[in-house]
TrEMBL record, chain A:
<feature type="region of interest" description="Disordered">
    <location>
        <begin position="1"/>
        <end position="33"/>
    </location>
</feature>
<feature type="transmembrane region" description="Helical">
    <location>
        <begin position="288"/>
        <end position="308"/>
    </location>
</feature>
<feature type="domain" description="ABC transmembrane type-1">
    <location>
        <begin position="98"/>
        <end position="309"/>
    </location>
</feature>
<dbReference type="Pfam" id="PF00528">
    <property type="entry name" value="BPD_transp_1"/>
</dbReference>
<protein>
    <submittedName>
        <fullName>Multiple sugar transport system permease protein</fullName>
    </submittedName>
</protein>
<comment type="similarity">
    <text>Belongs to the binding-protein-dependent transport system permease family.</text>
</comment>
<keyword id="KW-1133">Transmembrane helix</keyword>
<feature type="transmembrane region" description="Helical">
    <location>
        <begin position="104"/>
        <end position="123"/>
    </location>
</feature>
<keyword id="KW-0812">Transmembrane</keyword>
From TrEMBL, chain B:
<feature type="transmembrane region" description="Helical">
    <location>
        <begin position="272"/>
        <end position="294"/>
    </location>
</feature>
<feature type="transmembrane region" description="Helical">
    <location>
        <begin position="211"/>
        <end position="233"/>
    </location>
</feature>
<keyword id="KW-0813">Transport</keyword>
<dbReference type="InterPro" id="IPR035906">
    <property type="entry name" value="MetI-like_sf"/>
</dbReference>
<dbReference type="GO" id="GO:0055085">
    <property type="term" value="P:transmembrane transport"/>
</dbReference>
<protein>
    <submittedName>
        <fullName>Multiple sugar transport system permease protein</fullName>
    </submittedName>
</protein>
<keyword id="KW-0472">Membrane</keyword>
<feature type="transmembrane region" description="Helical">
    <location>
        <begin position="171"/>
        <end position="190"/>
    </location>
</feature>
<feature type="domain" description="ABC transmembrane type-1">
    <location>
        <begin position="100"/>
        <end position="293"/>
    </location>
</feature>
């Protein structure tokens, strides 16, 4: 990434597809000498490979294995075949928590994508201020725990400034995080606050690849900003948007921290998201086998989403990006 | 976009100078976004500098109520238990200095090692030639498909078997050697270093190891710093994994400590002032770190890494 380039020389709008600025592809060039660097490469790759094998590949395989066992950490795991999966399918709490998670993802991603897109377009078309970009990113520097606690305080039913304002407007106070209906949307929006800036900057980077003279040409033709957004920005940003969507959806499904510090799964399991239920099964009830089975289920769901979205993206490739 | 107002030549479409409603509306939206982004930060500060009694008595006051540093004193364990309880604290004796140090140690260890080892691997994947290179790299890429959260439970079992539960090393280990993303990200940049630079160094008699340190690392310093800062922030803010691994003060990091502080609610109600002071202590270092590198990071968050 080059540091934000100064205003590019305005070229004549050619009307043809702009050249994509991708720089991928493996180097196949031979650098003069023909002996490989096998030994040296082994040395260079050793630490990372060790970490990969021990803390990524092995745990992944082990996680799948554990899902077929009964395991409480203290005694060796005993093979029970599909028992955990049978139990999972018949566990109403599991389906409930999956449903709660889907509701969360739906609200979180829906609001976040629209807001991030709006912010990214404003940062592109309204102002090029780097300072604003920095400001937008600040919530991303907080942990989910901090974000959860701050909003827990702002939205506190008795003393929170949010509820003070609401009651000042003559509306009844809303127990945002203590009410079954409100809790999930509230947590979803708190996490939008934390992540929307980062998402917006990713989209903004995608927007930077769209040549400015396309907008200039459209302006000369008398197109409004609104029209330019739908005719230029959206079609050209689509591949980038798709990748960002895959990333954010996968991240969103793994919600845990915010729930843990604000509602702890309550009230009455209303915010018992999947990851929280998995954690409770493993560390509350020491059912590591069952917890692993639910993790595998989540893994399958996320893989399916990735494949599905990837397929949909490939269908809609544009000539940029 | 700088609005350059040049008087347009007379065209078929005369430009009418009206009040630009669209721009005004857009700026209003932008202003609102900045407000929602920044206000919670002010509210943390205002709450941390108030007394709990003041907060209950005057919840809407935009300024700190009964300006005091007692919230910070409670968070940093500078108050006696009786004094803390009298001011609406839990008197639980949390020692945030220690957690701050733990957070610094863990994040520094993870970031330093992860970036260095990932850079080494990225160099092997991009500038060295060896059999099976692309296959091994493909394996790493496949690792990106596994959600981080999936490996937490099995990794916990592994750390337990290694007898590293409740140690800072136990918290750091899983991400200390690499993340597939870091390797992938750096490889993208190393590939773009022109071959001529490398060849010139080779002609000067430099070895491949020297080239890595003297040519590749310096030339990729901006992405390395960006990745470093983002890694630092990520590990600093991590909660789920340290929550599993640490049980006692000796390995407790700030995020976990905050949750404990929140759980230690006294009978009378939450110690909001102390909690917000603790929150500020946890958040401030990252704000400072970001402020130092903001320009580089903001301009290099992009698609190079996830193409």
């Amino acid at each position: 990434m080059t540091i934000a380039s100064s205003s590019p020389p305005s070229r004549l709008p050619t009307g043809s597809a702009a050249e994509a600025r991708t720089r991928t592809g493996t180097e196949r060039g031979v650098s003069g000498e023909d002996r490989g660097d096998g030994r040296l490469a082994a040395l260079f790759i050793a630490p990372a490979l060790l970490g990969f094998l021990v803390f990524l590949l092995w745990p992944t395989l082990r996680g799948i294995y554990l899902s077929f066992t009964r395991f409480n950490l203290l005694t060796p795991a005993e093979w029970v075949g599909l028992d955990n999966y049978v139990r999972m399918v018949n566990d109403p709490i599991f389906w409930d928590s999956l449903w709660v998670t889907v509701e969360y993802v739906f609200i979180n991603i829906g609001v976040q994508t629209v807001a991030a897109l709006a912010i990214a377009v404003l940062l592109q078309r309204l102002t090029q201020s780097a300072m604003l970009r920095g400001i937008v990113l600040t919530p991303y520097l907080m942990s989910n725990v901090v974000a959860g606690l701050v909003w827990l305080w702002i939205l506190d039913t008795q003393l929170g400034i949010g509820n003070e304002i609401i009651s000042g407007l003559g509306v009844d106070r809303i127990p945002f995080l203590a009410d079954e209906t409100w809790a999930i949307p509230t947590i979803a929006l708190v996490n939008v606050w934390r992540h929307v800036g980062y998402t917006a900057l990713l989209l903004f980077a995608g927007l930077q690849a769209i040549p400015g003279d396309m907008y200039e040409a459209a302006r000369v033709d008398g197109a409004s900003e609104w029209r330019m957004f739908w005719r230029i920005t959206m079609p050209l940003l689509r591949p980038v948007l798709a990748v960002v969507l895959i990333m954010t959806v996968i991240g969103s499904f793994q919600v845990f921290d915010t729930v843990a510090v604000t509602t702890a799964g309550g009230p009455a399991n209303a915010t018992n998201v999947l990851q929280y239920y998995i954690y409770g099964s493993a560390f509350g009830r020491f059912q590591f086998g069952y917890a692993s089975a639910m993790s595998v289920a989540l893994l399958v769901v996320l893989s399916a989403i990735t494949v599905l979205q990837y397929r949909l993206t490939r269908a809609g490739r544009t000539d940029l990006g | 976009m700088a609005a350059v107002t040049t008087t347009p030549p007379t065209t078929l479409r005369p430009v009418r100078r009206r009040f630009p409603f669209g721009r005004a509306a857009a700026w209003t939206v932008m202003g609102l976004i900045v407000l929602i982004t920044l206000l919670p930060f002010y509210w943390i500060l205002r709450t941390a500098l108030s007394t709990n009694a003041g907060l209950s008595a005057d919840p809407t006051n935009p300024l700190p109520v009964d300006l005091t540093t007692s919230g910070f004193e409670r968070a940093l364990g500078l108050q006696s238990a009786e004094e803390a309880v009298a001011q609406g604290g839990a008197g639980g004796g949390l020692d945030f200095w220690r957690y701050l140090l733990n957070s610094v140690l863990v994040s520094t260890l993870i970031t330093g090692c992860q970036i260095f080892f990932s850079a080494m691997a990225a160099y092997a994947f991009s500038r060295l030639r060896w059999r099976g290179r692309d296959k091994v790299f493909g394996l790493f890429l496949a690792g990106m498909m596994v959600p981080a959260i999936f490996t937490l439970l099995p990794n916990f079992v592994l750390i337990k078997q290694l007898h590293l539960i409740d140690t800072l090393l136990g918290i750091a280990l899983p991400t200390m050697f690499m993340t597939p993303f870091a390797v992938f990200f750096l490889r993208q940049f190393f590939m773009n270093i022109p071959k001529e630079v490398e060849e010139a160094a080779l002609l000067d008699g430099a070895g491949k190891i020297k080239i890595f340190f003297r040519v590749v690392l310096p030339m990729a310093s901006t992405p390395i710093i960006t990745l470093g800062v983002l890694t630092y922030i990520t590990s600093w803010n991590d909660y789920f994994w340290p929550l599993m691994v640490s049980y006692s003060d000796s390995s407790r990091v700030l995020t976990v400590a905050l949750a404990v502080f929140r759980a230690q609610t006294p009978q009378t109600g939450v110690d909001w002032s102390g909690l917000m002071a603790a929150t500020l202590i946890a958040a401030l270092p990252m704000l400072v770190l970001f402020a130092c590198f903001a320009r580089r990071i903001v301009s290099s968050i992009g698609f190079t890494g996830i193409k």
